[in-house]
Design brief:
Number of helices: 8
Largest sheet: 8 strands, parallel
CATH superfamily: Aldolase class I
Number of strands: 8
Strand order of the largest sheet: 1-8-7-6-5-4-3-2
Radius of gyration: 16 Å
Order of helices and strands: EHEHEHEHEEHEHEHH
CATH architecture: Alpha-Beta Barrel
Helix content: 25-40%
Strand content: 15-25%
Shape: globular
Bound molecules: D-xylitol-5-phosphate, zinc ion
Number of domains: 1
CATH class: Alpha Beta
Structural class: alpha/beta
């Protein structure tokens, strides 16, 4: 289970998304935040834009759906070429079915929980997913402060995964920077989303390398 760095293009220049994807070409994934103005108050981009990003991106896409009714909309993101499609547990009527539908289109599937959502009711879904996304801020906006209390949930996720014997990733998203990534890695996360930290840096590639190096100091047997 390697370290995966997935910079969020929410902090990129939306008039130059292709250029800004190329600025992070030495990361592992590009994290794409889809917000519908209902599940979260903010509104970003949707399917037609993600479809084009999948065509021009030098990196596989890690699409984070902060939308209502993923049962209806999530499979379409897999269909247009997203490599990893994550939906929120709170928003899905039938999470196991959403996961199956995403996989049927050839993508990996992630399930996300907001800071206030307990993981326990979803742990029986482990065989249906490839990743658990533990939100480390309230979803909706970039540039918020990391919530350290979420490290308990990361530990719980990693422990449940270890018990299951399955190869499942744990992603953290929100407030990840040089000063927070080590505690997340130590708790058992292996996929790290960073928006403002990467795109505010003068050289985005240097920030990606620095984050990777810090995370690699805390290898987790998985
Ligand atoms: C927040 C998004 C995040 C956001 C992270 O709702 O899901 O992916 O882009 O941004 P930073 O790294 O600035 O907290
Ligand atoms: Zn996100």
């Amino acid at each position: 289970m390697g370290i995966v760095i997935s910079p969020s293009i929410l902090a990129a220049d939306f008039a130059n998304l292709e250029r800004d994807l190329n600025r992070i070409a030495d990361a592992d994934y590009a994290h794409v935040d889809v917000m519908d103005g209902h599940f979260v108050p903010n509104l970003t981009i949707g399917l037609p834009v993600v479809a084009r990003l999948a065509q021009v991106s030098p990196l596989p896409l890690d699409v984070h759906l902060m939308i209502d009714d993923p049962d209806r909309w999530a499979p379409g993101y897999a269909e247009v070429g997203a490599n990893l499609v994550t939906f929120h547990a709170e928003a899905a009527a039938n999470p196991a079915q959403v996961a199956r539908d995403i996989r049927r289109h050839g993508a990996r599937v992630g399930i996300a929980v907001r800071p206030g959502t307990a993981l326990d009711p979803y742990l029986d879904l482990l065989p249906s997913v490839d990743m658990i996304l533990v939100m480390t801020v309230e979803p909706g906006f970039g540039g918020q402060s990391f919530i350290p209390e979420m490290m308990l949930k990361v530990r719980q996720a990693r422990a449940a995964i270890s018990r299951s014997g399955l190869d499942i990733w744990v992603e953290v998203d929100g407030g990840i920077s040089r000063s927070t990534i080590e505690q997340a890695a130590d708790a058992g996360a292996n996929v790290f989303v960073a928006g403002s930290a990467v795109y505010a840096a003068e050289v985005a590639a240097d920030e990606v390398a620095a984050l990777r190096e810090l995370a690699e100091r805390h290898p987790h047997a998985g």
